Amino acid sequence: MSTENPKFKDFNFAEGELLLINKPYKWTSFDVVGKIRNSLKPLKLKVGHAGTLDPLATGLLIICTGKLTKQIDTFQAEEKEYTGTMILGATTPSFDMETEVDETFDISQISNEEIYAACSPFIGDIEQYPPAHSAVKVNGERLYVKARLGEEVELRKRFVSVPEFEITRIELPEIDFRVVCSKGTYIRSLISDFGKQLNNGAYLSKLTRTRSGNFLLKDAFEVLELVNYIRSKKEEAKTQAEV
Prior knowledge:
It contains six helices and 15 strands. It has two domains: 16-77 and 214-242, 2-Layer Sandwich (Pseudouridine synthase), CATH 3.30.2350.10; 80-212, Pseudouridine synthase (2-Layer Sandwich), CATH 3.30.2350.10. The chain is 25% helix and 31% strand. Strand 2 (47-49) and strand 3 form a beta hairpin. By secondary structure, it is an alpha+beta fold.
């Protein structure tokens, strides 16, 4: 791999680096952290991420190394932007494609105008419940663990901010959208509530984080691109040490 790529530089991982990663589909956020941490061995460094992405989501994941991990909470608190696709006319227990459709609805009478208008109640400061299939902890246990065991859980309402929510394409049953939101917003819950606003059902079929604070997905590394670069630099250093 050429080191002339302007995205690459001489990293100082121990002092602290902020890495922008395009999280692959079906990878967990911890999978990405683990891959990067392993590539840095034998260095024993702290590596963490600022803002979890669900396994079925893709897009911008901020990774911090070394001393910069102390600033993770700061990065995590920043505004996020997402683009995605929902399926109108059906629901799933997880509000996305992790679980099978459990109910279907007639969408033949829903107009484009009604769909556009349904965004309005969700713009501004709103309240929502996290999905039962989520990483939120209740009494020290993740909700998704209880949900998969079929246990009932008490969902606690949370307050979030959604400055922007717009529909960008309608080709029923698919609807594309763009959302700008605060930390802690569950897009799956937003889409589920959007379906209810239409007296119907909806679930998330695709989601990509395009921005976190001032950091953009277009500037992100592919995971293996970065890992291969780190390994090549380690081999380079080893070769020079042996000369």
